[in-house]
Design brief:
Layout (H helix, E strand, L loop, with lengths): L20 H4 L32 H11 L6 E4 L3 H11 L6 E4 L6 H8 L3 E4 L10 H7 L4 E7 L11 H10 L3 E5 L21 E6 L12 E4 L2 H10 L7 H11 L2 H23 L4 E4 L6 E6 L2 H10 L5 E2 L9 E5 L3 H14 L1
The structure holds pyridoxal-5'-phosphate (PLP).
C-alpha cells in the first residue's frame, strides 16, 4: 500500500501554511479590526469587504452531503486546474521526478508539469483510446510520482477501462490522479467510492462542466485526508473568492436543475449521433461518455473553415495523436445542435 506521507517532497513536510487573521482568532466577535479590511464596506454595492473563508467550510459541507465523502477528504481549488498544479508541486521534485500522462488527453497536465520543470513521460493511449498497460508499466520507476488518468477522456470522450485503471492503482508506486471532469455525463460510477480503499487515489471533479459554472473557476479534489491537508497547506490562502464560494454554493443547492440539464445534454448528444452516423462523410464517431463528441470527417479542414464562416466554432483536434481528421463537437442547446447538423449536411 502506497503511503502518501512518503511521497510528499521533503521540504514541504515542514512548510507552515499562511495563518490568516481570522484563523488566529477563535471565538465569537462583533467587531472585526484584525485584518486591515475596509470597515466602511465595498466600493460597490454588496458585502465583499471581508476576506473569504480560506477553508471553504460551507462548500465542503454541501459537497460532502452530495457526494458522501467526508469533509476532510475534500479540497476546493480555483478550477481543477489549481489542484493539478498543486499536486505536481506537492509530489514532484523538479528535474528529478516525473508525471505520466496518456495522450491524447487534457492539455493542462503537460502545461503544469512544464511550468514546474517536471518531466512529463508520455505513454500514448492505444488507437482505441484505451490504456496501454504494458507501456505504462515499462516507464514506472521510483521517480514516477503522479499518473494522470482522464476518464471520460478529453478529447476522445470515452471511458478508460475500469479494470485496467484498478490494476494501475494497485501497482503504481505514486499517486494516481483520476480526472472525472465529465463524470456526471457518464454511466460509470465515480472513483470517489474507492478513496477509502486506496490512499494513493486522487479524484478530480469540477463545477465547470455539468454544473455549468466554468466562469467562476471552482474545482474539487477528493483524496486521502493527509493529501488534502497538504494541499490545504500549500494553496494560496484565499484561492476562492467570497463571490465564487457563494455562487458555487447556490449551484450546489440546485442539484435537480443540474441533473435536468445533464439529461437534456445527453439526449441531445444521442440526437447528434443519430444525425451524424448516417452521413457518408462521417468516418467515425468515438463512443462518448461526456458532453462532447469526437468525430472523424472527410475534408475536415474545409468543414471546419466552413463552420467558422457560418459563425459556428468547434474544436479542430486533427493534430492530436490518433485524432486525424477529427473535430470535437461540444453538445449545444437543441437549437444550436439543429443548426450544426444543418450546416454539416449543407457543407457536404
Ligand atoms: C474541462 C476540464 C477540466 C476542468 O478544468 P477547470 O479548471 O475545473 O475548469 C478538467 N479536466 C478535464 C479533462 C477537462 O476537460
Amino acid at each position: 500500500m502506497v503511503s502518501p506521507e512518503n511521497l510528499v517532497r521533503n521540504h514541504l513536510k515542514t512548510v507552515k501554511a499562511y495563518s490568516s487573521a481570522r484563523d488566529e482568532f477563535e471565538g465569537e466577535a462583533e467587531v472585526f479590526l484584525d485584518a486591515n479590511e475596509n470597515s466602511l464596506g465595498s466600493a460597490t454595492e454588496g458585502f465583499y469587504n471581508r476576506y473569504p473563508d480560506p477553508h471553504h467550510k460551507a462548500l465542503k459541507n454541501k459537497w460532502s452531503e452530495i457526494k458522501g465523502v467526508a469533509t476532510n477528504s475534500i479540497f476546493f481549488g480555483n478550477g481543477s486546474d489549481e489542484p493539478i498544479d498543486l499536486l505536481i508541486r506537492l509530489f514532484c521534485e523538479p528535474g528529478e521526478d516525473h508525471i505520466i500522462t496518456l495522450p491524447p488527453t487534457y492539455g493542462m497536465y503537460a502545461v503544469s508539469s512544464a511550468i514546474n520543470a517536471v518531466e512529463n513521460v508520455k505513454v500514448p493511449l492505444t488507437k482505441e483510446f484505451q490504456i496501454d498497460l504494458n507501456g505504462v508499466k515499462a516507464v514506472i520507476n521510483r521517480h514516477s510520482k503522479l499518473l494522470f488518468l482522464c476518464s471520460p477522456n478529453n478529447p476522445s470522450g470515452n471511458l478508460l477501462d475500469k479494470q485496467v485503471m484498478l490494476e494501475l492503482v494497485k501497482i503504481f508506486p505514486g499517486i494516481v490522479v483520476v480526472d472525472e471532469a465529465y463524470i456526471d455525463f457518464s454511466p460509470e460510477a465515480s472513483w470517489i467510492n474507492e478513496l477509502v480503499n486506496y490512499r494513493n487515489v486522487v479524484v478530480l471533479q469540477t463545477l465547470s462542466k455539468a454544473w455549468g459554472m466554468a466562469g467562476i473557476r471552482v474545482g474539487v479534489a477528493m483524496a486521502d485526508p493527509y493529501v488534502v491537508s497538504m494541499l490545504e497547506r500549500i494553496k494560496p490562502p484565499y484561492n476562492l473568492s467570497q463571490a465564487n464560494q457563494q455562487l458555487a454554493l447556490e449551484a450546489l443547492n440546485a442539484e435537480a436543475k443540474k441533473n435536468e440539464k445533464v439529461d437534456t445534454l445527453l439526449s441531445e448528444r444521442d440526437r447528434l449521433i443519430n444525425e451524424l452516423k448516417d452521413l457518408g462523410q462521417v468516418q467515425e464517431i468515438i463512443e462518448s461518455a461526456a458532453n462532447f463528441l469526437l468525430v472523424r470527417f472527410d475534408q475536415v479542414q474545409e468543414l471546419f473553415d466552413y463552420l467558422i464562416n457560418e459563425k459556428v466554432i468547434v474544436r479542430n483536434r486533427t493534430k492530436e495523436l490518433y485524432c486525424e481528421n477529427c473535430l470535437r463537437l461540444t453538445v449545444g442547446t437543441p437549437d444550436e445542435n439543429t443548426r450544426l447538423i444543418h450546416l454539416i449536411k449543407e457543407f457536404y
